[in-house]
Design goal:
This protein is an alpha+beta fold. It contains seven helices and five strands. It has two domains: about 5-80; about 85-220, Histidine kinase-like ATPase, C-terminal domain (Heat Shock Protein 90), CATH 3.30.565.10.
Length: about 220
């Protein structure tokens, strides 16, 4: 039985509600916690300079180190919650920023190849593609123990195709079974919903040296 148009509309609306909530949380996290961490670090640095040779010196040093770690963790959370660069510069630059992020913080060697104008796509579709690539890279590291990935996007007047290759562990189940699996299911379900919301097709395939994710989205002429 074919899916009704209302089904895709409902999925898209639910996804946008989630993204709006993520955006608000990221805004509050950046403004409230970010500012407080900066203030604590500044005070700790001042105490560190003024306490040279005193018992409080190593304590101040520890506070500076801890706030640096917390700021790095917050930056990672902000990146996951909402890609603010997408609002400002579009999908192409956002994917480049994502690649830089996963290489620096996740140790995943990644190459990006884009053919066509991604920034001419609808904004909601750009966000959906960003989330799909983001989740695919995260899953490659977290569940596949991959060390290298290739991300390829092709845009024509009729379709957008997204491919993510990784050299991680091959899949031992089909997509439906993987989605039901507790550890990897949530991320894959998110990918599936985003593909369905845009009337797209999704497939996973084992390769000789890893796994390939393929998405295809029809584009209105």
């Amino acid at each position: 039985m074919s899916e009704q148009p209302e089904y895709h509309t409902l999925i898209r609306q639910n996804l946008m509600l989630i993204e709006n909530e993520r955006r608000e949380i990221a805004f509050e996290l950046h403004n409230e916690i970010g500012q407080n961490l900066t203030a604590i670090r500044t005070a700790a640095q001042l105490m560190h300079r003024q306490s040279e040779g005193r018992q409080t010196h190593p304590v101040a040093e520890s506070i500076v180190s801890l706030t640096d770690q917390m700021y790095t963790s917050m930056h990672s959370l902000l990146h996951r919650l909402h890609p603010s660069i997408l609002d400002k510069f579009g999908l192409s630059d956002s994917l480049l920023d994502l690649i830089t992020f996963v290489q620096e913080y996740m140790g995943l060697k990644c190459h990006l190849d884009v053919m066509g104008n991604l920034d001419g796509l609808p904004e909601d579709l750009q966000l959906a593609v960003y989330r799909i690539v983001q989740e695919a890279l995260t899953n490659a590291v977290r569940h596949g123990q991959a060390t290298e990935t290739d991300v390829k996007l092709f845009v024509s007047k009729d379709a957008l195709q997204v491919f993510v290759y990784n050299n991680g562990t091959q899949l031992d189940s089909d997509l439906d079974a993987l989605i039901r699996h507790k550890s990897s299911g949530i991320g894959l379900l998110g990918i599936q919903h985003r593909v369905q919301a845009w009337h797209g097709d999704l497939a996973f395939k084992n390769l000789d040296d890893g796994v390939k994710l393929s998405c295809s989205f029809p584009l209105a002429n």
